[in-house]
Amino acid sequence: MTASTPQDIAREAVKRLTARKLPPTPENFQTYYHEVAGTRPLKPFPLENLRQIAQALPDATPAQQRFKTQFGKAVSLHSWEDLEKALTQQIRSQAPTEAPATAPTVTLPAQERERFPPDLLEQMARLVGNALPAVGNDDRKVVELADDLMRYLRLPDQHPPALRKLMADFAFRLSFVAEEQAAIRETLLKLLHAVLDNVRALNPEQPWLQKQLSALIAVAQPPLSIRRLEEAQSRLKDLTRLQLETQEQMLAAQNAMKETLAVFMQRLGETAASSEQYQQRFEHFAHQLERSTSLAEMTPVLQQAIQSARSLALDSQRTGADLGALRQRASRAEAQVAQLRDELQRLSEQASHDALTGALNRKGMTDVLERETSRAQRLGSSLCLALLDLDDFKRLNDRLGHLTGDAALQHLATVAKAALRPHDSLARYGGEEFLIILPDIEPDEALEVVRRVQRELSTQLFLSGSERVLITFSAGVTQLFEHETLAQALERADQAMYAAKRAGKNRVLRA
Ligand SMILES: Nc1nc2c(ncn2[C@@H]2O[C@H](COP(=O)(O)OP(=O)(O)OP(=O)(O)O)[C@@H](O)[C@H]2O)c(=O)[nH]1
User: In what residue span(s) does the GGDEF domain sit (predicted)?
Assistant: First the structure.
């Protein structure tokens, strides 16, 4: 494929640089750019020499001063075009015989030049400054070009060709850096997935870990947003905390098990050794008995044998008791490990999400509320809250049973989550009460979002066996005002929700 547009040429040049393992310095890039484009590289601008000439120019008369300024400006902008213009004008103005009667002046007065509105220039300078953090500070060149451009935009007077060149240089470099940043983000995300997949594959027998990892993988999906990343971060923190909390106890239980096994083995070894001793002793008695010829000879041997048999019986009774105790200890340790595993699973589910509905639990809700309130304050954006309470839920429980009631709560959470915007959060506030946290939204729009949830619930009916059950809720929506506490806003939402109940239920009111 032949590169035709400047972007294609630039991309191909970068590929060649990478293939030849060369650092992406401006010089290297320029060389390969020309190689791809089939053009000749420009000669470097002799800045120092021209600067010396500019300094040496006389400035005794106003005309000389004007020429000197114009020349100096052209040099600092590396503009051959401007230099050419300055020189030809100067020569013309100094050759009265050749110059027309109305020879143009060297520079036009500022008010006659093409001028940009100063507020537009300031906006452009801000735009450039604001774009920089998005591409990071890794590329020194783009920062330098941005500084040059911003400085130039803030000068009292601008020259269109110079401005065009500064903007083109900056835009070109910026596109290059932005592309690289996007590639870095994508690669980091792939890396994160690879790490998570790996941990999952290495721990197939840890259901709680599998569940947490799956949730993490689901969160870490493009398009990335800061909220998704924060959620992933908070889940990872939960995971680490849980592991640390339970790992110690788990290790203690496993060590107890190991010790028990060691003692068990030792006792078995001892039993084997003592039975060998008894066996030898009995063989010895048998020989003696074979050799004895009279009852008198046999009697002491038999007495010894009986004595040994008694000790053997006692020993094995004790060993049996010991082994029984050890067995009990082992099964106690085993039960403890199993219990810890269950506990881990339970804790893991309760970390920041409600186990029944998958909505945020109180802890998760507090974290999100903290994050969103400080973000709203920082950005001066509007944050709304909606408190939902299911209607006649007691009757549903009484009629269809508590388990069906649980399933209805799950249904509500699923439908609500799907109907909300990606950055809204659903939390289980109490038994059959939910809180929706709606960032960056005005109250009227928030009201509409909650009504959308209401509409979705009325179309996606809950199925109890073959019965289609309509679940409704009453809700109060409010905005969190500056300088008020969360509790105050929640109280207002609560009152609006009760007003909705009093007004006949299945409605959303604004506080
Ligand atoms: N199945 C189930 N029921 C729950 C759960 N949490 C709370 N409830 C029930 O929700 C019902 C709430 O009843 P009430 O406060 O009287 O409200 P309601 O029947 O919805 O009446 P209104 O709010 O006036 O519409 C109670 O019966 C609770 O037992 C839960 O996790 N599962």
Answer: 381-511
The residue to which tokens 């010829």 are assigned: 293
497 and 416 in a common domain: yes
Does residue 412 contact residue 494 with C-beta atoms inside 8 Å?
Answer: no
Number of structural domains the chain divides into: 4
Mark whether 402 and 468 lie in a shared domain: yes
406 Cα: distance to centroid of ligand 1 (angstroms): 10
Q: What's the half-sphere exposure (Cβ side, CA atoms, 13 Å) at 475?
A: 25
> Does residue 58 form part of some domain?
no
The pLDDT of residue 101 is above 50: no
**Residue 205 among the catalytic residues:** no
- Is the Cβ atom of 433 under 6 angstroms away from ligand 1? no
Query: Residue of the nearest CA to atom 32 in ligand 1?
Result: 406
Pocket test of ligand 1: the residue of 356, 397, 404, 428 to mutate, having most ligand atoms within 8 Å of its CB, is: 397
Distance from the alpha carbon of residue 397 to the mean position of ligand 1, in angstroms? 7
The CATH number that applies at residue 369 is 3.30.70.270
Indicate the range of 191-195, 258-262, 450-454 predicted with least confidence: 258-262
User: Measured on CA atoms in the order 292, 297, 303, 308, is the torsion positive or negative?
Assistant: negative
Residues 259 and 279 reside in one and the same domain: yes
Distances (CA, A) of 44 to 36, 56, 143, 237: 19, 22, 22, 54
Which atom of ligand 1 is nearest the CA belonging to 474? 25
173 and 276 both lie in a single domain: no
Pocket test for ligand 1, best of 394, 395, 403, 462 (most atoms within 8 A of CB): 394
Instruction: Please state, in angstroms and rounded to a whole number, the distance separating the CA atoms of residues 282 and 306.
Output: 10
**Shared domain check, 404 and 341:** no
Q: Is 394 in the pocket of ligand 1 (CB under 6 A)?
A: yes
- Model ipTM over 0.95: yes
Q: Tell whether ligand 1 has an atom less than 6 A from the beta carbon of residue 390.
A: yes
Is 25 among the domain residues? no
Same domain, 493 and 416: yes
Position 78 pLDDT exceeds 90: no
What's the confidence (pLDDT) of residue 112?
44
Residues 167 and 233 in one domain: no
Residue 173: pLDDT band (50, 70, 90) is confident
Residue 332's H or E segment, with its range, is helix 295-350
Cβ of 87: how many Cβ atoms within 10 Å?
14
Specify the pTM. Answer: 0.51
Q: Is the CB of 391 under 6 A from ligand 1?
A: yes
Q: Whose CA is nearest to atom 21 of ligand 1?
A: 392
**Which candidate, 469, 367, 398, 387, places its Cα nearest to that of 436?**
387
Q: What are the pLDDT digits (tens) for 425-449?
A: 999 999 999 999 999 999 999 999 9
Residue nearest to atom 27 of ligand 1 (CA): 394
Q: Report percent pLDDT > 90 for the chain.
A: 28
What is the span of the domain harbouring residue 178? 118-184
